[in-house]
Amino acid sequence: MKQIKTLTEADYDAVFSLSQFAFQYELSKEGLLKKQEEVKRHMIWGWMEDDRLAAKLHLIPLSCYINGNAFSMGGISAVATWPEYRRQGMVKHLLYHALTYMRENGQSLSFLHPFSFAFYRKYGWEYAFTEQHYAIPLEKLKKKWSPIEGYVRRIQPDIPLLHRIYTEYAKVYNGMLVRDEKWWKQRVLKDKQQIAVAYNGEGHPEGYLIYNVKEHVFDVTEMVYSNLNGWKQLLHFIANHDSMADKVKLTVPENDKLPLLLDEPRFEQKLDPYFMARIVDVQRFLQAYPFQQDGKLTFVIKDEFFPENSGTYQWQKTAEETNVTISRSSNTVDAVHCTIQVLTGMLLNFKRPKEYYHVGLLSGEEKTIDRLEQLIPNRQTFLTDFF
């Protein structure tokens, strides 16, 4: 008998057996217990063949910041199929099931880390996050970082303190997670890490580093700051490790400005496609999206995999309210026409409307595209977490 089943703790042996095989890792007894505790927050669905687990998908209930506002988001994770059951459409059915669940439960967005961008684009997810990796010889950070004021101190894990700094930083970018205490403990703070906090002259925290130093490499797990002074203090702190490290490795937003501050900007800088995103419920998302001007616009959206989203959306915003009405007709001339993938990329501001327009992925009258450009806030996408 073939069916989708909601998996529970009773199924954990089968769940983790498939995960360890598919993703090629092995959990210790302690590691398995930690993972079992972590997935208690997950919805896990399995495709069953004669009561045996053939494929599975995890959905993590999360929230992320879009233009400074929190949006409910479903994180797709740990999608896997046993080899003998692959290429039979099981993951396709699981994805549709997950989208239906998210839509019914108010999650208007979904993120995932793909094994293949092409595979998940077929199902409506779109490239939306890039990581920029730096490998910088430490001698290039040794400069006068003045004017700076304050000091940096290493601390023991202090989640309330780190959370306050992180939240201020996260709201600047599109896509950063809204973390809770459990996420900090289970996903961010690890053993054998160092934490350093930058304070200004009045003792107010302005940034932090989570890092370790090993084999002459200063490896930054997370670098967060609220202003230029905090940023410079952290860079100065890293440079002071020149007696024990030859280079620093860190991951930064795609629009990072560090090369402008260094006397010698020639160092290893690598851009890697990272996460994908998908709008799950177009009407709900447009209703909540913080367009930066009042007005009206019509969107004609095509969602081949999840046709519940396909249709014409009349958006109108005044000082008092926002309204989004739906028509299943696509016979609208004065509108923007695009797929669910392009709509997601535009509204997260991964790329601007004119960029999609110039490569033929967005259509409409030029004046309508110009109007859309004015409506969408210009914020960088960035995601420091992984799931």
From TrEMBL:
Pfam families: Acetyltransf_17, Acetyltransf_9, SCP2_2. InterPro entries: Acetyltransf_17, Acetyltransferase_Eis, Acyl_CoA_acyltransferase, Eis_dom, GNAT_dom, SCP2_sterol-bd_dom_sf. One of its GO terms (biological process) is aminoglycoside antibiotic catabolic process. Residues 2-143 form the N-acetyltransferase domain. One of its GO terms (molecular function) is aminoglycoside N-acetyltransferase activity. This is Acetyltransferase. It comes from Lentibacillus populi. The lineage of its organism: Bacteria, Bacillati, Bacillota, Bacilli, Bacillales.
